[in-house]
Specification:
- This protein is globular.
- It has an 8-stranded mixed sheet with strand order 1-6-7-4-3-2-5-8, with no helix packed on it.
- The protein has 5 helices and 8 strands, in the order H-H-H-H-H-E-E-E-E-E-E-E-E.
- It is α+β, with helices and mostly antiparallel strands.
- Helix content is 24%, strand content 22%.
- Strand 3 and strand 4 form a beta hairpin.
Amino acid sequence: MPSSSSSSSGFQKRSQKSSLDAGCHRRLVDRFGLNISDAGFQLCFDVCKSHQPEEIVRAAAQLDLKKLTDKGSFPALLTSTSSSITHGPQVVTGPLFVQVVGCKNIAQPSISQNSGSQQKRCLYVQLTDGCSRAIALEHRHLPTLSLRNLAPGTKLVLRNVVFERNFLLLEPRYDGAFGDRDRPPDCMELHCYNN
């Protein structure tokens, strides 16, 4: 007859339950801006079977952000319901872990959105942090972004993004030519996680 301790350990092996510890949660928020709930962590753990923040973020990139968080990561500045427009540009330092809801080139007519040759481009990107929505505009051309790699469901980690007139302004203030160690501390960073 098996002891009660062996039967409880056998149950744990079958259920593969894991919980989010405070240290791991803090690392996810500080490094990636991913403010994940316990239920969201369990969904990510089921995909990656790891407590490592990098693996959890890779798993989160495959899942719907709305199912992973109950708080979101946007600061109050972005989610304000008042109709007043902020005075002057402000930098949202982040990091912000967000999901693309939709993307279109507002410099082109809708009939030619998917054509390969687009001389004019201004991407209008609808984002969510799982709870709230925000709009990002390609303020200056970013060659790493396109309508193809910003498909709905794509996850982005944003840092040091200018927020002005209720838009996050995406611009290449750092081109990566000198490597990460020479990056100015206030440059915008954008990391893309495609599903």
